[in-house]
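Supplementary Methods. Inverse-folding protocol.

Structures were first reduced to a C-alpha cell string of length 294. This string, shown here, constituted the complete conditioning input.
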C-alpha cells in the first residue's frame, strides 16, 4: 500500500455531499495529477489529504495512520501543501516566507536553528530562488512568487507535496517554469507530488499517474497514455476531442474541438484521422512495443 491513501472517504460542505466513500491510493515517488471538471471534488480531496477539511466518513491515511487524528505539527513534518492563490504579508522577503516552512520543526518561538537555516538555503537553491532571497515577495513575477511558495513547502522537509492548481493565473512561460521545477524535484529527489491541474496536456506530460474525477468519484485512473482517451474526455468533461502523441515527448496530447453534446461538432474530431501521419507513427511505436514484449 502507498504511504498516502484514502479509505471510504466521504466529504461534504454542510449538507452538500461532495465525495462519497472514495478509495484512492497515491503512488509513492511519482507525480499524480487530479483532473476533472469544476465541482468534481479534486480540490476538496486535496484539502482533506492535507488535513484542512475534516471527513464526514472514512479517512485519509499516512503510513497507516489516520491523519485527522494526528497532531497538526506531526502531519506537517510529513506532507506539505501549497493551496490555491496563497498570499503573504506585505513587505515579507522571500527568505522570511521560506522560513515559515520550518515552523513544524521548531519548539516554541525560538530562533532558527542551524538545521533550519540549512534547509531554508537548500530550498532556495533547489527552486532557483537564492538570488531573490532578500527581495520582497510583492516585487516578484508570478512564476518567481510561485517558486518562492514551493520553496517554503520544500523547507518543511517532507517527502509528500500537495499542490492545488500551482499554475493558476500564470502566463505560459511561468506555467512551464513551475511545471519544470516540479518535474525536476520529482526526478532528482523522488518527491511524491499530488497536484490538481486544469490543463490536461500539462497533466499528461508531467505526471506519471492520472486520476480523472466526476462528482467526487474516480472514473479513470492509471498512466496518462491509458487514461487520456476520447471516451474519458467525453464522459468527464463533455468534450469532443482527439488524442494524438506529442511530437516531442510522445505523451498523449488533447486536441479539443467542442462540446460532445453539440451536434454542430458531431464527428468533427474524427475527420481525417485515417490520414493522420502522427497517429500512424504512434500506432507503429505501439506495435513495436507489443512485439518487443512478446
Amino acid at each position: 500500500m502507498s504511504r498516502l491513501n484514502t479509505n471510504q472517504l466521504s466529504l461534504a460542505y454542510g449538507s452538500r455531499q461532495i465525495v462519497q466513500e472514495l478509495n484512492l491510493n497515491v503512488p509513492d515517488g511519482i507525480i499524480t495529477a487530479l483532473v476533472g471538471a469544476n465541482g468534481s471534488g479534486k480540490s476538496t480531496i486535496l484539502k482533506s489529504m492535507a488535513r484542512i477539511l475534516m471527513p464526514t466518513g472514512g479517512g485519509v491515511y499516512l503510513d497507516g495512520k489516520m491523519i485527522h487524528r494526528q497532531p497538526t505539527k506531526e502531519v506537517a513534518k510529513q506532507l506539505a501543501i501549497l493551496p490555491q492563490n496563497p498570499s503573504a504579508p506585505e513587505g515579507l522577503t522571500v527568505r522570511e516566507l521560506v522560513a515559515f516552512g520550518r515552523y513544524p520543526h521548531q519548539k516554541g518561538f525560538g530562533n532558527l536553528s542551524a538545521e533550519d537555516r540549512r534547509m531554508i538555503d537548500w530550498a532556495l537553491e533547489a527552486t532557483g530562488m537564492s538570488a531573490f532571497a532578500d527581495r520582497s515577495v510583492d516585487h516578484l513575477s508570478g512564476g518567481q512568487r510561485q517558486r518562492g511558495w514551493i520553496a517554503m513547502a520544500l523547507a518543511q522537509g517532507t517527502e509528500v507535496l500537495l499542490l492545488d492548481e500551482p499554475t493558476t493565473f500564470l502566463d505560459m512561460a511561468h506555467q512551464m517554469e513551475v511545471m519544470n521545477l516540479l518535474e525536476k524535484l520529482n526526478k532528482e529527489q523522488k518527491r511524491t507530488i499530488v497536484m490538481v491541474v486544469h490543463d490536461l496536456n500539462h497533466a499528461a506530460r508531467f505526471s506519471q499517474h492520472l486520476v480523472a474525477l466526476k462528482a467526487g468519484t474516480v472514473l479513470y485512473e492509471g498512466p496518462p497514455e491509458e487514461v487520456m482517451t476520447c471516451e474519458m474526455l467525453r464522459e468527464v468533461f463533455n468534450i469532443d476531442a482527439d488524442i494524438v502523441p506529442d511530437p516531442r515527448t510522445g505523451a498523449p496530447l488533447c486536441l479539443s474541438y467542442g462540446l460532445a453534446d453539440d451536434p454542430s461538432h458531431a464527428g468533427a474530431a474524427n475527420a481525417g484521422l485515417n490520414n493522420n501521419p502522427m497517429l500512424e507513427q504512434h500506432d507503429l511505436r505501439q506495435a513495436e512495443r507489443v512485439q518487443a514484449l512478446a
